[in-house]
Backbone:
């Protein structure tokens, strides 16, 4: 058993085969493109198509709608393998699955599932999730993007930002408010095509990391939707958002573990090759301490993530476990990436080596899908309710 696999977890043979298939694909086809994706802010459309053919783009979508019908635990293993090769590619796939397909599967009507899921699950179309706004941040109940009812039409106006996959997506899960005075009870979720009159996508953000994952703001200028676009029930959009984010945290946790794994992999290799004072730096106790702390964090975060995913698969409560997994994994990724740069010394600070990319990619995992501060509030809040 490789250190990359960590503690033995009760995976069935199908999960083990999927994990190996994802690793083979990631190492053979994703990793060779990782530097180009980062350097050129390149969107790897060819990888999206290949992931679609492998079932990754519809990982948790029921087979009747063209998906792979995988359990959450298998999905997390796939995301980790992709992230260990390229963080950008992993979040393109993860945001598509967790944030767009998941709420359609859970809350969509039969007509919505038939309309949207097959093309999304195959990778022919790409999805995104539009919740955050310029002034709301983590306060998902304080939306200013408004919906006005005119007969059978719902007119949407307002601005959204930080939309992962936004510049290239075809389908969007949108959250807007029918009544600001009702707070979270006024929020309604919609699913719609992005090629509608009145929708304007902003320029892609020039980000610190995950540079191949395109992000932008989206402006709605009196965009006409209908009741057929409502996802779930009118006024119940906040429930859709929170359920989606809870599940999405598992995908980000898996991504963070993959980034941390890449950092440890490169740190191990470099520490065995680089010599000081007549011996490889891997023989120095300080370096060994760094490496030990990195693998402890990775194994702990993976175990917690898979346990939370398993709880979700069993239909059990998993909100606290998902928040704990996301928090631990993201902070592990930052720690591992920082130590990877330190082990590389000056070479860790230049773009000729991937160490600095791991550090830039790791930081976002502490921010999106709920910041580390929000995760601690979720965790403490669940304890106080018991």
Residues:
């Amino acid at each position: 058993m490789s250190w990359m696999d960590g503690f033995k977890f009760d995976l069935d043979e199908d999960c083990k085969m999927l994990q190996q298939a994802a690793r083979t694909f990631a190492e053979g086809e994703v990793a060779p493109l990782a530097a180009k994706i980062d350097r050129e802010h390149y969107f790897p459309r060819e990888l999206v198509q290949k992931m679609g053919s492998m079932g990754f783009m519809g990982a948790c979508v029921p087979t009747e709608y063209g998906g792979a019908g995988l359990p959450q635990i298998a999905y997390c293993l796939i995301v980790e393998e992709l992230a260990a090769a390229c963080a950008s590619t992993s979040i393109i796939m993860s945001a598509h699955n967790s944030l767009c397909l998941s709420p359609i599967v859970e809350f969509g009507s039969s007509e919505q599932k038939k309309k949207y899921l097959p093309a999304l699950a195959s990778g022919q179309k790409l999805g995104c999730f539009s919740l955050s706004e310029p002034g709301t941040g983590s306060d998902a109940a304080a939306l200013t993007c408004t919906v006005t009812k005119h007969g059978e039409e719902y007119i949407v106006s307002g601005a959204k930002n930080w939309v992962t996959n936004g510049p290239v997506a075809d389908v969007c899960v949108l959250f807007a408010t029918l009544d600001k005075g009702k707070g979270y009870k006024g929020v309604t979720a919609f699913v719609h095509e992005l090629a509608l009159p009145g929708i304007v996508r902003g320029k892609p953000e020039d980000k610190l990391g995950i540079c191949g994952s395109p992000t932008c703001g989206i402006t709605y200028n009196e965009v006409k939707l209908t009741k057929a676009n409502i996802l779930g029930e009118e006024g119940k959009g906040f429930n859709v958002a929170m359920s989606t984010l809870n599940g999405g945290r598992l995908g980000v946790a898996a991504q963070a573990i993959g980034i941390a794994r890449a950092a440890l992999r490169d740190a191990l290799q470099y520490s065995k090759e680089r010599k000081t004072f007549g011996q490889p730096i891997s023989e120095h106790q300080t370096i060994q301490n760094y490496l030990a702390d990195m693998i402890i964090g990775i194994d702990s975060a993976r175990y917690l993530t898979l346990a939370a995913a398993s709880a979700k698969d069993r239909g059990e409560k998993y909100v606290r476990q998902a928040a704990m997994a996301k928090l631990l994994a993201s902070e592990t990724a930052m720690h591992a990436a920082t130590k990877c740069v330190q082990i590389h010394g000056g070479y860790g600070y230049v773009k000729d080596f991937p160490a600095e990319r791991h550090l830039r990619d790791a930081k976002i995992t502490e921010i999106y899908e709920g910041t580390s501060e929000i995760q601690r509030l979720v965790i403490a809040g669940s304890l106080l309710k018991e």
Observations:
- The mean pLDDT is 95.
- The radius of gyration is 21 Å.
